[in-house]
């Protein structure tokens, strides 16, 4: 609390995007290249405005393809560098992401996404080949400032790309905060692989390459060797798993959620707790590595009757939740596609009352409430599909009890949508 | 191969390479400073090793070897990345100009250049090279243009000339079906950010000598910070052209060379037209023939 005697306030009210950018600069980021796309655009704006002041460079790339290429070049010189977009723009960059990972360059990627539809893209990768990116998902701007700096640290630590998964709220919420440099405990090795040109002609020149091409005299590992190198690094990076959980001691229902929506979920659970409902949560902070152990431990508690995955998508993280729960409890999808006409991914479900209703329905083993206005957008089974799937017409209409075989085959949501016809 | 009477009469080997002829002398070091080994994986008759050696020699001659960084694309020439003694960043197919941009912005004192083929630069990465040129990025782009995808085995690229036979233009490139070739050097020369643009070749000694001058001017342009510099080198690809090795240079001049006109396309901000270059080439050829006739007398 501020009192008359307290020192001058160090907090500044700033947009989330600016806080993320200032955090990146505090971490030593000196190069950024990007292409405007909502809701990521302001990250590019702030980098363009602020980086030159510290001797850095921000290039307004002519496309996402070029943005990631530019960051690639900057990284190869040993600089801390980043690029970013929304998931749509990152789709264009996937080829480079694959190969940058093979080249072992410490790229930091900002995804200010439209909702949470990019979970698969972020955690499974949209590119070719065997690779993993560490994915950090802050719940708010304050945590974002910390995780952006962690992203640069982990990228250098593992010589592997790290992706920061945010959204419209993270990018555009204004908060009063101080962006201060965080020094991490583990020391980082010198970048003795980076190129500056000074070794050219000395017989000690270097090659930053994803191809495994080596100079004469060096062990020739080839592309197979490069792929093997990454494969053996992946289990080590899994040790970077991070998560937060709460109210699990007596929880009968556990909700898993990440990012900004997780903050809504926690608030909703707080309200439901106050009303006497025994509900807890697990919030993955790293989406990859996914906190399977934390989810597993939560689901194995003797109190737990069901686990829900709340996410603003058609259901992507739920795959990981199911892996973590491993059959210890029923896992149900309680999120949904949630967007508005802007396409920013902040639609009707991102609302505490809506979320509380969905969690309570899960808790009380009722079908999920239908999202207002989405009736028209519910897929209707055709006759040939009913026959092929052996679903009787009335099965989709029954829906009230998600535990019935018919409803389970369609999923509780589909069952309920049918009931509303 | 018929090299003369000895072989025809069976008096000895076609060409005795077991020892150096008495009058022969080494006028150039066999191994350029910036090459780690003379071994390469190119086909016989390939023009790319000649182009490689040309710009490596120029870098050494200019005294900038110890601050040069190469950004390589994907093509046959990618195998050079293991044999050049130059700090190197391997880029994706088509993306070298953007990667070079990032390198140069972080290492403004380095001499940064890209190495791409026509498939890499003009097909896959056309927008990258155009944007990098338009931005006036202070890097040098080197294009090895043989009019085919050599690495995949001789397929049409965006620079394949009309009538040229490739594996996917079996009856020759037909404008009405396959479209027209892109004259990338001419295109780049029109961009304001491009400071120096030239098109050379390595099909004969004169071509190599002129191309080395072009490399020199391009790297000097970069050192002076004047903007984007670009050297396109027409190279032979007998394998991808499906012709005997020895016919490479002749095929090159009669197909690619007739369309992708050689010469300096932009110097000191002035764009030179194809007609100007053509006239210059004709005059040079006439001068060379006159000189040859004088020498012959």
Q: What characterizes the major β-sheet of chain B?
A: 8 strands, mixed
End-to-end span of chain B in angstroms?
Answer: 30 Å
Beta-strand content bin of chain A? 15-25%
* N-to-C SSE string of chain B, H for helix and E for strand: HHEEHEHHEEEHHEHEHHHEEH
Largest sheet of chain A: 7 strands, mixed
Estimated structural class of chain A: alpha/beta
Shape of chain A: globular
Radius of gyration of chain A, whole Å: 23 Å
Biggest sheet strand line-up of chain B: 2-1-3-4-8-7-9-10
Mean pLDDT of chain B: 92
What would the principal axes of the Cα set say about the shape of chain B?
A: globular
Amino- and carboxy-terminal Cα gap of chain A: 54 Å
Q: Report the oligomer.
A: heterodimer
Radius of gyration of chain B: 20 Å
Biggest chain pair contact, residues each?
A-B, 48 and 44 residues
What share of residues of chain B is helical?
A: 25-40%
What's the quick description here?
Chain A has 421 residues and is an alpha/beta fold. Chain A has helices at residues 16-26, 41-50, 64-76, 87-102, 119-124, 141-158, 168-172, 222-237, 259-274, 292-300, 318-325, 352-363, 383-389, 393-398, 405-410, 412-419, and strands at residues 12-15, 29-34, 57-60, 80-85, 108-113, 134-136, 162-167, 174-177, 207-208, 243-246, 253-256, 279-284, 286-288, 306-309, 331-333.
How would you describe the overall organization of this protein?
The complex is a heterodimer of chains A (421) and B (297). With 421 residues, chain A is an alpha/beta fold. Chain A has 16 helices and 15 strands. In chain A, the strands form three sheets. Chain A has a seven-stranded mixed sheet with strand order 3-2-4-5-7-6-13, sandwiched between helices. A five-stranded mixed sheet of chain A has the order 10-12-11-14-15, sandwiched between helices. In chain A, helix 2 (41-50) links the parallel strand 2 (29-34) and strand 3. In chain A, helix 9 (259-274) crosses helix 12 (352-363). The longest helix of chain A is centred in the middle third of the chain and has 18 residues, at 141-158. Chain A is globular and about 70 Å long. Mean pLDDT of chain A is 89; it is low at 395-421. Chain B has 297 residues and is α/β, with parallel strands linked by helices. Chain B has helices spanning 5-9, 48-61, 96-106, 118-124, 126-134, 175-178, 184-189, 205-223, 238-241, 248-254, 256-259, 274-296, and strands at residues 68-72, 87-90, 111-117, 140-145, 148-149, 155-156, 194-201, 228-234, 263-267, 270-271. Chain B has an eight-stranded mixed sheet with strand order 2-1-3-4-8-7-9-10, with helices on both faces. Chain B has a two-stranded antiparallel sheet with strand order 5-6. Chain B is globular, with a radius of gyration of 20 Å. The model of chain B is unreliable at 1-8 (pLDDT under 50). Strand 9 (207-208) of chain A pairs parallel with strand 2 (87-90) of chain B.
């Amino acid at each position: 609390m501020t009192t008359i005697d307290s020192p001058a306030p160090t907090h500044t009210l700033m947009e989330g995007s600016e806080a993320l950018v200032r955090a990146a600069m505090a971490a030593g980021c000196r190069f950024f290249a990007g292409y405007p796309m909502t809701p990521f655009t302001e990250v590019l704006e702030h980098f363009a405005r602020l980086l030159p002041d510290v001797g850095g460079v921000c290039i307004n790339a002519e496309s996402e393809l070029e943005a990631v290429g530019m960051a690639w070049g900057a990284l190869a010189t040993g600089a801390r560098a980043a690029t970013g977009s929304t998931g749509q723009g990152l789709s264009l960059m996937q080829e480079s992401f694959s190969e940058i990972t093979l080249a072992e360059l410490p790229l930091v990627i900002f995804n200010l996404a439209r909702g949470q539809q990019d979970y698969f893209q972020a955690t499974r990768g949209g590119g070719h080949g065997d690779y993993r990116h560490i994915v950090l998902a802050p719940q708010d701007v304050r945590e974002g400032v910390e995780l952006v700096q962690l992203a640069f640290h982990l990228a250098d630590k593992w010589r592997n790309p790290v992706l920061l998964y945010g959204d419209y709220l993270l990018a555009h919420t204004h908060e009063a905060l101080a962006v201060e440099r965080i020094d991490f405990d583990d020391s980082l090795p010198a970048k003795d692989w980076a190129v500056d040109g000074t070794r050219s002609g000395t017989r000690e020149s270097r090659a930053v390459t994803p191809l495994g091409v080596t100079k004469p005299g060096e062990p020739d590992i080839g592309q197979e060797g490069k792929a093997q190198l990454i494969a053996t690094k992946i289990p080590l990076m899994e040790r970077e798993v991070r998560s937060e959980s709460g109210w699990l001691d007596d929880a009968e229902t556990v909700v898993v959620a990440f990012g900004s929506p997780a903050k809504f979920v926690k608030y909703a659970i707080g309200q439901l707790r106050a009303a006497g409902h025994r509900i807890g949560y697990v919030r993955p902070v790293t989406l990859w590595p996914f906190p399977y152990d934390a989810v597993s431990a939560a689901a194995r508690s003797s109190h737990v009757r069901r686990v829900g995955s709340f996410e603003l998508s058609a259901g992507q993280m739920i795959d990981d939740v199911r892996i973590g729960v491993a059959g210890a409890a029923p896992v149900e999808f309680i999120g949904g596609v949630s967007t508005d006409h802007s396409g920013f991914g902040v639609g009707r479900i991102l609302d505490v009352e809506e979320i509380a209703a969905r969690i309570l329905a899960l808790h009380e083993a009722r079908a999920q409430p239908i999202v207002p206005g989405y009736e028209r957008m519910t897929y209707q089974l055709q006759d040939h599909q009913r026959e092929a799937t052996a679903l009787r017409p009335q099965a989709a209409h029954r829906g009230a009890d998600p535990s019935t075989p018919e409803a389970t085959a369609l999923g509780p949501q589909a069952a309920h949508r049918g009931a509303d016809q | 191969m018929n090299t003369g009477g000895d072989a025809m009469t069976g008096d000895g080997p076609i060409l005795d390479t077991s020892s150096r002829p008495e009058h022969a002398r080494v006028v150039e070091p066999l191994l350029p400073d910036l090459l780690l080994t003379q071994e390469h994986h190119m086909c016989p008759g390939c023009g790319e090793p000649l182009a490689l050696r040309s710009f490596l020699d120029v870098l050494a001659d200019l005294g900038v070897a110890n601050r040069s960084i190469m950004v390589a694309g994907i093509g046959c020439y990618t195998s050079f990345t293991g044999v050049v003694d130059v700090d190197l960043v391997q880029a994706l197919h088509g993306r070298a100009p953007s990667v070079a941009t990032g390198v140069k912005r972080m290492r403004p004192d380095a001499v940064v250049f890209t190495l791409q083929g026509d498939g890499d630069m003009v097909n896959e990465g056309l927008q990258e090279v155009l944007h990098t040129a338009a931005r006036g990025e202070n890097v040098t782009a080197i294009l090895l243009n043989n009019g085919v995808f050599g690495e995949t085995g001789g397929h049409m690229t965006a620079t394949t000339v009309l009538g040229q036979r490739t594996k996917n233009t079996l009856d020759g490139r037909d404008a009405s079906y396959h479209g027209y070739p892109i004259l990338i050097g001419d295109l780049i020369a029109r961009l304001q950010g491009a400071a120096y643009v030239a098109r050379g070749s390595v099909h004969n000694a004169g071509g190599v000598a002129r191309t080395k001058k072009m490399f020199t001017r391009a790297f000097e342009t970069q050192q002076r910070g004047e903007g984007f510099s670009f050297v396109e080198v027409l190279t032979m690809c007998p394998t991808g052209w499906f012709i005997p090795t020895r016919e490479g240079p002749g095929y090159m001049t009669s197909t690619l060379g007739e369309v992708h006109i050689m010469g300096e396309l932009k110097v000191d901000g002035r764009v030179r037209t194809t007609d100007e270059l053509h006239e210059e080439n004709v005059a040079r050829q006439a001068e060379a023939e006159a000189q040859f006739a004088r020498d012959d007398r």
